[in-house]
Specification:
Elements lengths: L3 H11 L2 E2 L4 H6 L27 H4 L1 H13 L4 E3 L7 H4 L8 H22 L6 E6 L22 H17 L4 E7 L2 H18 L12 E5 L14 H8 L6 E9 H14 L3 E7 L13 H13 L5 E2 L7 H11 L12 H7 L1
Parallel strand pairs: 1-8, 2-3, 3-4, 4-5, 5-6, 6-7, 7-8
Helix pairs in contact: 4-6, 6-7, 7-8, 10-11, 11-12
C-alpha cells in the first residue's frame, strides 16, 4: 500500500493543492468565553486563558473538528493543525508550557481523524494533515529593547528545544507534513529546521521526502511594501537561507493580501528549486483590524498567480473562511501547477 508521502508527491505533480484557511477567523465566529478554554484540570488555573486558541484542541475539540470539516468540505486538500502557538515558549504566556506536547499531539490527532474520514469518502481525493509550527512570540535576530540592541529574549538552542518537542507531538499525532509558517525571523526558522532534522535523525526518518521522509513546508512573511521580512531579508535572501534542507515547498503567507504579495511570490516562482506555496490574507486589514475582502475578489486577485504558473499550493491566511477556500479551489482547478526542473546531486556536482 502506498504511503501518504508517496501519495502526496504524486498528487502535487498533477494539480494545484488547496491548503485550508484561517483557524483564528473561524474560532472568532463562535464567540467563546473563558470557560470554553478551560479543561477540568484547568478549572482553577490562575491565568486568563481566553484567546489561547491552541488550547481548544483539549477543551473544545468539537469546535476544532468542525472547522477542519468545513475546510475539507470547501475543497481543501491539506488542513493545518491548531498549533500555531504550540511551543513551550508561546504557551509560557499562559503558564501552560507543560501542555505543549499534549496540545500538538491532540491537535494532530483531531486533524488526522477528520482528514481520514474525508479520504475514506473520496479515495480519489486524499486529504493531508500539515503540522503547523508558528514563529513563537520571541525573535532570535532582533532585540525587544530599543535601548539595548544587542539583547536577545531567546537563544537558538532554546528555540530548537521548544520546536523539537512540538515536532515530536505533531508526528506522534499523525501529521503528514511539517509546516514552518509565518516566518518573520529566518533565524527562528533555522532553529525549527535544525530541530526537525534532529528529530528526524533520532526517529530514523529520511530528511528528503523522495526517500520516504515526512515532507517539510516553509512559509515566510513579507511584512510591508519594503519587500522584506521583519528581520530584514529580501525574498531571495530568505529562499537562499532555507534552501539547505530538501523542502517540499517554500512560500509566503500572512501580512499582505494577494495583490500585494504578487511581486515577492514571483521571485520564489522564478528561483525556488522546490514547489511554491502561497496563502495570503483576505486583503489588508481595515481600521478595526478586520478583513473585508470577499471570496470572489480574493480569487480574482489570485488568478494572476495561476495564469503565470507560479503556484503548486494555494490557501488562505488571516480573514479567510471556507467561502474563500471554496472560491480558490474552484478557480485553481482550471489551471496547471507550476513546473520546475529539479536538479539532482549528480547534476550539481557536474556543474561545479
Amino acid at each position: 500500500m502506498q504511503n501518504r508521502t508517496d501519495t502526496l508527491l504524486q498528487v502535487i505533480q498533477n494539480r494545484i493543492l488547496i491548503l485550508d484557511g484561517a483557524m483564528g477567523t473561524m474560532i472568532q465566529r463562535y464567540k467563546l468565553d473563558e470557560e470554553d478554554f478551560r479543561t477540568p484540570e484547568l478549572a482553577n488555573h490562575p491565568k486568563s486563558l481566553k484567546g489561547n486558541n491552541d488550547l481548544l484542541s483539549l477543551s473544545r475539540p468539537d469546535i476544532i473538528r468542525q472547522i477542519h470539516r468545513e475546510y475539507l468540505e470547501a475543497g481543501a486538500d491539506i488542513i493545518e493543525t491548531n498549533t500555531f502557538s504550540g511551543t513551550t515558549i508561546a504557551q509560557a504566556d499562559y503558564e501552560l508550557s507543560h501542555l505543549a506536547y499534549a496540545i500538538n499531539f491532540e491537535s494532530a490527532k483531531l486533524a488526522r481523524e477528520v482528514a481520514d474520514e474525508f479520504s475514506a469518502k473520496e479515495p480519489n481525493k486524499p486529504r493531508f494533515v500539515a503540522g503547523a509550527i508558528g514563529p513563537t512570540n520571541r525573535t532570535a535576530s532582533l532585540s525587544p529593547d530599543v535601548n539595548d540592541p544587542g539583547y536577545r529574549a531567546i537563544t537558538f538552542d532554546q528555540l530548537a528545544e521548544a520546536y523539537a518537542e512540538q515536532v515530536n507531538g505533531l508526528l506522534d499525532g499523525g501529521s503528514d507534513i511539517i509546516l514552518v509558517e509565518t516566518i518573520f525571523d529566518t533565524l527562528n526558522a533555522k532553529a525549527a529546521l535544525y530541530a526537525i532534522q534532529e528529530v528526524y535523525e533520532k526517529r530514523n526518518i529520511p530528511l528528503d521526502p523522495k526517500d520516504g521522509g515526512i515532507p517539510i513546508m516553509i512559509s515566510g512573511t513579507i511584512t510591508d511594501a519594503s519587500g522584506r521580512t521583519l528581520s530584514g531579508q529580501t525574498t531571495e535572501a530568505f529562499l537562499i537561507s532555507v534552501s539547505h534542507v530538501p523542502l517540499l515547498s517554500v512560500g509566503l503567507n500572512c501580512a499582505l493580501g494577494a495583490k500585494e504579495l504578487r511581486p515577492y511570490l514571483k521571485v520564489l516562482a522564478q528561483n525556488a528549486p522546490f514547489y511554491v506555496s502561497a496563502y495570503p490574507n483576505a486583503g489588508l486589514p481595515n481600521e478595526f483590524g478586520a478583513y473585508d475582502q470577499g471570496a470572489n475578489e480574493m480569487a480574482d486577485q489570485v488568478r494572476d498567480f495561476l495564469k503565470e504558473g507560479m503556484l503548486n499550493i494555494l490557501g488562505g491566511c488571516c480573514g479567510t473562511t471556507p467561502e474563500h477556500i471554496r472560491a480558490l479551489a474552484d478557480m485553481a482547478a482550471q489551471f496547471q501547477p507550476r513546473k520546475f526542473e529539479e536538479v539532482t546531486e549528480e547534476e550539481e556536482e557536474s556543474n561545479v
